[in-house]
Amino acid sequence: MGFQHPIERITTSPITYCNLFGVNSGKVQTYSSPEEDKLIIGNDVWIGQNVTLKPGITISDGAVIAANAVVTKDVPPYAIVGGIPAKIIRYRFDKELVKKLLETKWWEYSYLDFDDLSFKDNADDFLSSLITQIEAGELTQFKARKITL
């Protein structure tokens, strides 16, 4: 969504935070978005084309954002959202499976070790096999690097 204007000031005009206009040049106060305006995008998230995301929201693990959506609020884990403003359309999986997926944090394991797992299986079967391999210590830990935009 870009720069957040200082809506708590009497005007959102740049004259209150930018010297470009020569107005009140001695009284201009620098304005920058607060630290909490950082956007957080979880693991295994799919964001469609032409999506607008409000700074400061969290797109939780496993979420899907439909193309052209305008997301102004946090998106829960494994929710599919769309529209203007974006609303929850449905969840990818039932609550119990979402809980298990979040607990296993499957994205913290190297997908190169997933040879014995079939992504074509339904999610419950895949997760059961994955948990067995995790408990047996057969999977290598993977740490993705964080990206700052």
Automatic annotation (TrEMBL):
Organism, scientific name: Vibrio bivalvicida
Name this polypeptide is given: Acetyltransferase
CDD domains xref list: LbH_XAT
PANTHER family named in the record: ACETYLTRANSFERASE, ACETYLTRANSFERASE RV3034C-RELATED
Protein family membership: Belongs to the transferase hexapeptide repeat family.
Domain of life: Bacteria
Signal peptide range: none
InterPro entries reported in the protein's UniProt record: Hexapep (IPR001451), Trans_hexapeptide_repeat (IPR050179), Trimer_LpxA-like_sf (IPR011004)
